[in-house]
Amino acid sequence: MELRLLNQNKLKITLTSEDMAILDITYEEIDEYPDDIGTRRVLGEILAQAKTRTGFDAGKDKLYVHIQPDKSGGCSMILTKEEEFHTYYKKESLVYEKRYGTKIYTGIKKKRVLYMFDTSEILLEVCNQLNRLGYGGKSDIFADENKYYLYLEENRGLSLDFISEYGVMINNQFFLFYLDEHTKKILSPDAVKIFSEVFK
Fold this sequence. Notes:
This protein is an alpha+beta fold. Helix content is about 30%, strand content about 30%. A 6-stranded mixed beta sheet has the order 1-2-4-3-5-6. The longest helix has 18 residues, at about 35-55. The relative contact order is 0.14.
């Protein structure tokens, strides 16, 4: 992993395919799912190394992130602190830019929701119903010693309200840190389909 400080507010990160394998992440995960727990963990690790090695400290600043894949399977990112930009679309934590030719489009975050279940049997019933309804979004399943958690990307045109009949919707965004630290990710990123098909 190469970390190059361009100025006090801008950092270039170059990841080889080997770096990404070690970090257990792909370009698609960084580009399409910036708010995923795993993506946030990896970016946090990179920023911690950047602070130590280059002095780049994001602190509480929002970051503007330009990311591009390379032909070898790696990618490069340029992180710029918010203060250098005046007009752009803001996400909750990171602002992503996709470049297609000479045009620039701003990525729009897909909303995700988190549900907690008492047993794997209840979780399976929910996954079976989602499968029958044609759910096609990204989904992750986590578990700790007592509960199971389903982290879903909202599907346009498909209501997820019925899930509240089986489990509890968790609205606390800080609970994601609990999942990252105290649970085990069982399936990802197509957990609903896989769990339903394997245990039907």
